[in-house]
Specification:
By secondary structure, the protein is of the alpha/beta class. It folds into two domains: 116 residues, Aspartate Aminotransferase, domain 1, CATH 3.90.1150.10; 216 residues, Aspartate Aminotransferase, domain 2. The protein has twelve helices and twelve strands. The strands form three sheets. A seven-stranded mixed β-sheet has the order 2-8-7-6-5-3-4, with helices on both faces. A three-stranded antiparallel β-sheet has the order 9-10-12. The longest helix has 24 residues. The protein binds pyridoxal-5'-phosphate. Pyridoxal-5'-phosphate binds next to helix 4.
Length: 350
Amino acid sequence: MKYWNKRLQKMTEYIPGEQPDNLNEFIKLNTNENPFPPSPAVLDALQKACNGDLRRYPNPNAQMVRELFAKKNSIAADNVFVANGSDEIFTLLFRGFIEPDGIAAFPYPSYALYYTMAEANGIAYDKITLDDNFDIPFDEFLKKKYNLVIIANPNNPTGKGVPIDQIKKFCSKFIGLLVVDEAYVDFYNETALPLIKEFDNIVITRSFSKSYSLAGLRVGLAIAQKDIIHGFIKLKDSYNVDRIAQAGAYAALLDDKGFKYSISMVRNNKEYLEESLEELGFQNVPSKANFVFTKHPNIDSKTIYEKLKENKILVRYFAGPIQSEYIRITVGTMMEIKKLIKVLSEIIPD
Ligand SMILES: Cc1ncc(COP(=O)(O)O)c(C=O)c1O
């Protein structure tokens, strides 16, 4: 890495969950994708977008997506930024919002990309450990003058949600910028979005990767007061969201029926997964997302992860304090869950 700067040479790399090429050989329950495909209306819009217009650049701000999301949520298009996956929003946040001597804070365990992006940009940060119930100790985030706090609600990998009145209370006391990452909010819907009208220090992020089954397309949103959105627009690449992604996201926002159906299927399967795991003696953390963070008293989680992998079932195991006691299992189709439970019942010692 001799041509890269020292910071980059030293930084911890973000390791995404495994994405095997031979997808059909695996039951893939490791990166919280939706097990159901995009709706026929969305697939149709995507196919139609594959035409000669691809020789032209896309709309630089994905204006149609902005406007449709804004209309559906009774806000202005200027309150919405369309990103190349919500991950792009985190990249831009660190690039633009914090001065080099600023300091950020994130809960731990949480989405590891926050720590990686802070490091990549040379921003100091504190990891604030969740309490024993995996809840966010908000008072700890007020003990220093943090410039930026990012929380995921519901949190990944725990799946726990924070009530909106707690976020509101925190926002009114906090002097920095609070980012609420709502990548999983659609599954159980407790959004902090209305708070953008009241507070100028809150950004909500959304993703099309989970509830809309479009992880392969890379679209995310940031919602905030106009001034903050303007910052994202100044910082982004000129054409950050391609034509096909814009067409897919627009069609997905239009297709309420397909969306609601997919969510209800995931919720139904999640209940089945949780109950089946409990019957096998697993201890589940209560989840408001499309995954379950769980452990078993008779066998360590790394062994479960490895044995499942031998059986071509991928779940997520994270090294590190607290989280290494657990595995995170994404809700799959009914057939996938049944296979998982069968293999688990053979792995778990009596
Ligand atoms: C909490 C959280 N935020 C954001 C993302 C990434 O979302 P996107 O695919 O929109 O970049 C993930 C993906 O796993 C996530 O778990």
